[in-house]
Protein 1
Amino acid sequence: MKICFHFVIIRSKFAKSNLTLTTQNSKVMGFLSKKLLFLLAAAVMTLNVSADTYLKRELRGTWMTSFLSLDWPSVGVGVSSSIITSQKNEAIDYLNQLEKAHINAVYLQVRPCSDAFYKSSYEPWSSYLTGSRGADPGWDPLEFWVEEAHKRGIELHT
């Protein structure tokens, strides 16, 4: 098998003629092309070997906004058990859909308006959970999201 590399025409602003280099015209170019071919093959093999490693850690993420309840929780606000259950079920439905879509990371907004979706000594509870800013929802939404996401092999970032 004969491999022939034809290199691009080199134009010089100082020379009026074009110079075309081929592997047939130069023993040096033949030697260099063999080295280049070897390095290229080594690089491709390295990429193929490491591609499996990197594909397993590919980031496929999505953003879940809680501002104005655009993404979650959109089913209602309050502290009744039916509201809490519907908020949890909505989160589970989202995570199941994301798992089916092979999403492996969720970025959950947990501080939409200088308030929080977790117990904090610095920020009040979010009004998007209960309808009233600072009112304890009776459960920890962030902890729930973390547990449910990890059950599905999904990373949760806040």
Protein 2
Amino acid sequence: GCGRPIVRDPVTADYYHGMTGMGGIGVFEPSVPLEPEHAVNFLVRTLLSQPDGSVTLACLAPLTNVAVALVLEPRIAGKIREIVFMGGAQKEGGNTTPTASFNVFCDPHALHVVLTSGISVVMVNLDVTHQLVMTSRRLEAIQEIGTPAAQVVGDMLTWDHERRLSNYGAGAEGLPVSDLSVIAYILEPSLFSGRKLNVAVELVSPLTFGMTIVDTWGLTDRPPNALWLQHADADGVFQLLVNCLRKLKA
């Protein structure tokens, strides 16, 4: 994919996820070879081959590749049913700056391209992902499954759980596990609720760069351009995770 954001300097999160991005899990060579084609070209070619309005993009990272693909070939917008993107914040502020979430702060210009593309966008933001708290009880339910896949997931979550509790306070019930939220929404959207609102992103201010501005009360004349999620059934989401892990035999 793209080696850097569209405009700003690159930002990384090795301080948060570890140098490998896999927490405490050892890195191994994948059995599937790397795709030789550039990610942007792959997106364009693959999307153009699909029926109109048939593809859902699950985006758990900054939107650079998606935005560049839309600029390179605007026709792909018609192939996309919706983009489900983990990013943004309103009531929760930010997790990278006081006002910006990581996936937006890394490339806010990319989010701007997506939000102004006319594509249906679901914003799985910090306000809702912070409701998905990995408690000890929920972690134990994953560890008790006993399959290799559940063991790997349990090990990663244990590393994350213990590290963050030591950093943010051992008295906490647990800390949010945000990354499962996008797939959970796609599999069971009834576990989430929200409102169609206008969302814009700040691209200039040094104080609020990357902030998502959500027009909750319709104070502007800008039409709704995203489904802004506001509530999640945390028990239902974690039960969905357990159910999916139980189906994996490997």
Protein 3
Amino acid sequence: MIRRLARDIEGATAVEFGLVLPVFVAMMLGLLSVGMLAFSVNSLQFAAEDAARCAAVKTTVCTDASTTRAYALSRYAGPQVSPVFSYEFADCGHRVTATATYDLGLVPQIGKVPLTATACYA
């Protein structure tokens, strides 16, 4: 009887699936979360670059600091991280800086990730 039970492999696939499934799901959720983080960084950088270009070229749209910040906020298309844009005229030209905080809620040890983007257009 013991030899017969030792050779029986009918439930092995279910046990392997039960062991592998949680690890696989955690990896997929982590991959999605990191992908959203990368999308947020890219969108933040694009909004800062486009707003700096608007301040330099489209002077009828971006007339002052408040309209430039509003334009940058309208160009941000990432997840809801509440970005804050600032505008100034610096040595390099029209500079737009963006800051935001991305909540990486899946990983409690990391928590919130600070994001920054800076663009300058002469």
Protein 4
Amino acid sequence: MVNGAPPRRQRLLTLVVLIAISAAGLAGCSADGSPGLDPDAATPEEVLANAKTIFDETSGVQVSLSTTAVPSGVTGIKAATGVGVHPAAFEGTFDLSVNGLPASAEVIAVDGVTYAKNSLLLPDWTEIDPADYGAPDPAQLMSPDTGFSGLIGAIVDLQRGGSIRGGDSNEEILTQYTGTVPASAVESLIPTARGGFDVALTISDVGELRSADLTGVFYKGAGRITYILTIDDYGTEQEIIAP
């Protein structure tokens, strides 16, 4: 017995204590063990800092980057999909526009080197410089100092917006944020980016960055266009090796 309490009362007190302990633990972390943060009480800067920490500490993610508006006469990237992991490596597919003509390539980036394979021009895995194709350096996309993480850390003038449903079967609650970011933080995604960029992003209820719409001048003389970045499946594990 506790302080002479009868057995039934003791069991009730024990249950109350266990519930309190469990609630305190849940307040400190998300369902997947990510750092806990109450978005209603935190500032937008704290939410983004937390999202950066979660991204930097995950084993890997599924990544998608796309636009519908690569101008004709420009060599640039229309879409990229694949898996990014820590330590920084990437494996996936790039869809390019080469002076208005479509081209696709399989891509592997690991140990600071990018390899591409294309059925027409590069039938065998070949070491390339992605900047020659107006494409990001995939090896840097998962770096804590550049790529997606660098983009998160460079956003300023943050404003919190409303909440929307998203994720599988719209079961997640995503909070919207807007801000601006300099070209220096966007160049790791599109090397020819210049000027300032408007950013609209969503953060999940467990603190994960899920999407970022970037609008600005990505190609000289091409005007402002929008790229859409989506990040899913935090905790992805995949071994990526050089071909």
